[in-house]
């Protein structure tokens, strides 16, 4: 029987690559994005349906969920929509803070909540969430982005216990740096008191030792969707795996001090 995946944030990057991969693997794909009128590729694929969805719009979440379920059975929901709010907290507006959490965290929460009754009724289903290595390790000048991803991590782990009795799974994808258009969608408020330190941090980020492609991360999403394993976290990307292994080896405080020394020379 052909399986179906519902994906948020498919206009570009990991979401788009994942939609194309699952379609190539024979899955039916419901690809959602804020502006489907701008799509020039996914809608042309035979087994892909494109729907409008802004995950900060609760009514649109409910509408997209109902439309998706009316098209047939949904097996996997991949919550991918998100963006990065970076820079010093002091320079960040309240509106920017709220929007970051509304999109990255509450958007995922509300999409999952909308699909739970259907998954519970059929006693099967899998939620896959795009978190980040920034959800298991905190980095400078990304306090609100990290907060949104750490929130997803704790929420997912807690939720996994209550969903298991209904045979509903939940998994997190935690990549490091990925070559996507995320930089174009990054909000970067500035403050002169932090410019020098921010420049040092961005210099390291912009010259990574390793970086993943969206297609490589899409492969991990496919693995999570099909491996049948009871695993919550999928750390992926050579940079993320190496850094996380180091954190586990030396401990949280030693890792934090090492990161300070690397970036700030302290």
Automatic annotation (TrEMBL):
UniProt-listed Gene3D superfamilies: NAD(P)-binding Rossmann-like Domain
Pfam families, sorted: adh_short
Protein keywords: Oxidoreductase
Segments traversing the membrane: none
Keyword Cytoplasm carried by entry: no
Record has Oxidoreductase as a keyword: yes
Molecular function terms from GO: oxidoreductase activity
CDD domains per UniProt: 17beta-HSD-like_SDR_c (cd05374)
Domain of life: Bacteria
Family the UniProt entry places it in: Belongs to the short-chain dehydrogenases/reductases (SDR) family.
Name of this protein: SDR family NAD(P)-dependent oxidoreductase
Origin organism lineage: Bacteria, Pseudomonadati, Bacteroidota, Sphingobacteriia, Sphingobacteriales
